[in-house]
Amino acid sequence: MAIWQVTMELIPLSWAEKHQYDSNSLYDANGLYDVSNAWENNQPTVDFGEIISTFLPAKGSWDTELDIWGKAENDDVQVWREEGLVESIGCRIDLRKDTTKITEELMSFAKTMKCVLFFPEQKKIVKPEVTSTIQVIRNSGAAKFVQDPEEYLDSIGST
C-alpha cells in the first residue's frame, strides 16, 4: 500500500450485523487484522469478478489464490481465496486524483455483494453510503498526506 492510498475491505453485511459493526474481533493481540473469519460462513453468491471487471481491468497475479483488478500504485481490488473460498476482498483508492467515480463504483459493488466497508486504519465498519464512506476517507492518513505531505510526515514523526 502506498501512503497516498486508503485501504478498505469488504465485509459481509450479515457478519457486521451479527457483530454490531464492532471491528475488534477482526484484530489479533498484536493489532493485525484478518477478515477471513468474516467470510468463513458468508461466501459471495454473485460473480464478483464480472462486476469488478466493469470498473477495473483484470490484471495478472503472482499467486494462484489471488485475483487482482486495477493497478497496485493506483486503484485496485484484490480477492484472496483459500481452496476456492473467498478469504478477503480488499480495495485501495488512490487519493491523489478525483476519487468520485471509483468510490461510487466500490460502494455499488459492496451493495451488490451485500457487504459493508471496513477501514482497518481507523478500525471502522461503515455502510456503503456516500456520507459515511467519504467521512472515513477524508479522515484517513492517506487523505492527510495528499492534502499536506510535509505536515503529515512531521506529525507522524513526532509521535
List the helices and strands and how they pair.
Elements: E1 5-12, H1 13-18, H2 36-39, H3 48-52, E2 58-59, E3 66-70, E4 76-82, E5 85-94, H4 100-112, E6 115-119, E7 124-126, H5 130-138, H6 141-147, H7 149-157
Antiparallel strand pairs: 1-5, 1-6, 2-3, 3-4, 4-5, 6-7
3D architecture notes:
The protein is built from seven helices and seven strands; from the N terminus they run E-H-H-H-E-E-E-E-H-E-E-H-H-H. It is of the alpha+beta class. The protein has one domain (5-157): 2-Layer Sandwich (TATA-Binding Protein), CATH 3.30.310. Strands 2-3-4-5-1-6-7 form a seven-stranded antiparallel β-sheet. The longest helix is centred in the middle third of the chain and has 13 residues, at 100-112. The chain is globular and about 45 Å long.
Features:
single chain; 159 residues; alpha+beta; TATA-Binding Protein; seven-stranded antiparallel β-sheet; 7 helices; 7 strands; 33% helix; 25% strand; globular
Order of helices and strands: EHHHEEEEHEEHHH
Query: How are strands sequenced across the largest beta sheet?
Result: 2-3-4-5-1-6-7
Structural class: alpha+beta
Beta strand count: 7
Average pLDDT level = 93
> Beta fraction of the residues?
25-35%
CATH class bucket: Alpha Beta
Entry summary:
This protein is of the alpha+beta class and about 160 residues long. About 35% of the residues lie in helices and about 25% in strands. The protein contains seven helices and seven strands.
